[in-house]
TrEMBL record:
Protein name per the record: Probable 6-phosphogluconolactonase
Pathway: Carbohydrate degradation; pentose phosphate pathway; D-ribulose 5-phosphate from D-glucose 6-phosphate (oxidative stage): step 2/3
Coiled coil: none
Enzyme Commission code: 3.1.1.31
């Protein structure tokens, strides 16, 4: 990603779709790229973005369930959970076939205010009929290295029809939802940290996270990039600067971990709202005479 996603003057909207099956009024762009593609979908507000996100999650769930009888959804922490609340009470979604994992988790008890599991459960997971045994939480009370190994073990023990492997033996998750931090981190993969280079483990321990709490577990980049689909979700003015840096500025390798999210076979989408996309030049081009809106 980065600069090669934005070759100057080569980015043009391929379509503007009202709804696009995602709800709200997204504008859909494609970024030509030698080795990967991303779609940036701009919503009017965080609320319409949340509706669009949930429509997309439900659509991919439906597709996965038709194909293999189950859907694996992977969550990160932070503001994402609130964006998932439109799924609560949604008709026509077969939650009984969902399996929910965490792309990263803090090494704290499930009852802790810092727990992603608690945040997800209180906001969304506890309000939809996903069987509890299909929610894969971090084991409590282990040293962080053991917690990472144990979580990888939970993944390894999953039915291979639910969680198939690719040709490299990596798990192929159906959809990973990633938030981004102001420093460009995704999951618990922080700028210039050694975990970015790890290729031989599914789940890593982190004991010096710059964002508290310091002890976390995180899926590795190869596992993230083996997913069928990744949605990077960033709403609000607080994300505008980092979104612009990630999508439009070439950084040194590892300086912006979000630039290393490039699914090998899967589809990468960025879901933004008017505020978080306000600094992107493509959005300005889209409104300019040089790049008129298509209908
Ligand atoms: O454990 C964590 O710290 C989160 O998983 C983290 O990676 C989060 O997703 C981003 O920092 C975005 O968080 P916000 O959406 O709350 O800004």
């Amino acid at each position: 990603m980065g600069a090669h996603l934005m070759p100057s003057g080569e980015v043009a909207p391929i379509s503007t779709s009202r709804g696009a099956g995602l709800g709200g009024t997204p504008h859909l762009f494609a970024y030509p790229n030698k080795d990967s593609e991303a779609e940036v979908i701009q919503f009017g507000s965080a609320d319409t973005g949340a509706q669009g996100l949930c429509a997309h999650v439900a659509e991919l769930a439906d597709k996965a369930i038709k194909e293999k009888g189950s859907f694996t959804l992977v969550l990160s922490g932070g503001s994402l959970f609130k964006a998932l609340t439109p799924l609560v009470g949604q008709q026509g979604v077969d939650f009984s076939k969902w399996h929910v994992l965490f792309v990263d988790e803090r090494n704290v008890p499930h009852s802790s205010a810092d727990s992603n599991y608690k945040g997800a459960y209180d906001t969304f997971l506890g309000k939809v009929p996903i069987p509890k045994e299909q929610i894969y939480a971090i084991a409590e009370g282990l040293p962080v290295e053991a917690a990472a190994t144990e979580y990888a073990g939970q993944m390894l023990r999953m039915d291979p029809i639910v969680l198939p492997r690719n040709a490299s033996g990596l798990p192929v998750l159906d959809l990973i939802l990633l938030g981004i931090g102001p420093d460009g981190h995704v999951a618990s993969l922080f700028p210039n940290h050694k975990e970015l280079a790890v290729k031989d483990s599914w789940v890593l321990s982190v004991n010096n996270s710059p964002k508290p709490p310091p002890e976390r577990i995180t899926m590795s980049l190869p596992v993230i990039n083996a997913a069928k689909a990744i949605d990077v979700v960033a709403f609000g003015a607080g994300k505008a600067e980092v979104v612009q840096r990630i999508l439009e500025v070439q950084s040194l390798p590892g300086a912006l971990p979000a630039q290393l999210v490039r699914p090998e076979e899967g589809k990468l989408r960025w879901l933004l709202d008017a505020e978080s996309s306000s600094r992107l030049s493509i959005m300005q081009w889209q409104d300019s005479k040089a790049f008129p809106r298509s209908s």
